[in-house]
Specification:
Number of helices: 10
Radius of gyration: 17 Å
Helix content: 25-40%
Largest sheet: 6 strands, mixed
Number of strands: 10
Structural class: alpha/beta
Distance between the termini: 10 Å
Strand content: 15-25%
Shape: globular
Order of helices and strands: EEEHEEHEHHHHEHHEHEEH
Strand order of the largest sheet: 6-7-8-3-9-10
Amino acid sequence: MSGAALLSTHALEARYGDFQALFGVDFSIGAGEVVAIIGANGAGKSTLLKTITGLLRAPREAVRLDGEPIGGLRPGEIARRGIAMVPEGRRLFPSLSVEENLRMGKHSGRTGPWNLDTVYSLFPMLHDKRAHPATSLSGGQQQMVAIGRALMANPRLLMCDEISLGLAPIVVKEIYDALPSIIAGGLTAVVVEQDVGLARLVSDRLYCLQEGRVTLAGISGEVTREDISRAYFGDQPQAAR
């Protein structure tokens, strides 16, 4: 990454009660980048996103947006500053229609290019099903609703947590095919992804976490399978490239 970071973490730690989930995580992403976070189940990937978005508390100086400390702020305040998350499992409101779920993304009060028209243009099948209960849709369509809801917040930074989980490969391809259009509008994205090959394909850089620690940071097209294997299972952290 060149230039100043849009978002960065500094020796970030996180806990669930007495259990420590993150240990001294240093992470950064520049404006316009797509950065993937990989790692085995329980490695701390989702915890990192939850801590950045305020769902878990962080020391104030440990998370910075445009160089300004935002650690420990409430999730709503972080959303108003331009960070939105597509959560693992989608977390749609079952009592609301597709369109009502999408409108929930406007709560941040931010303005920008994303509205119902642009979301429907990105995912045309949602327009046809806009009056349907959101949870009556297929898993892939529900994931599109979750992404659209996050985009409706007009974020600067979109954080996607396991958006391919449980979906058929053809559906995953359809969702990730939309990513270039999303980024073309000036968005920056963090993608947590179990599929290492897919993570490398869609990202500029990647980080690997193992047991709450960064074990690899590098340019996606340059890290090798051996690098990734060591980062998943080895003991020695790999230097950033």
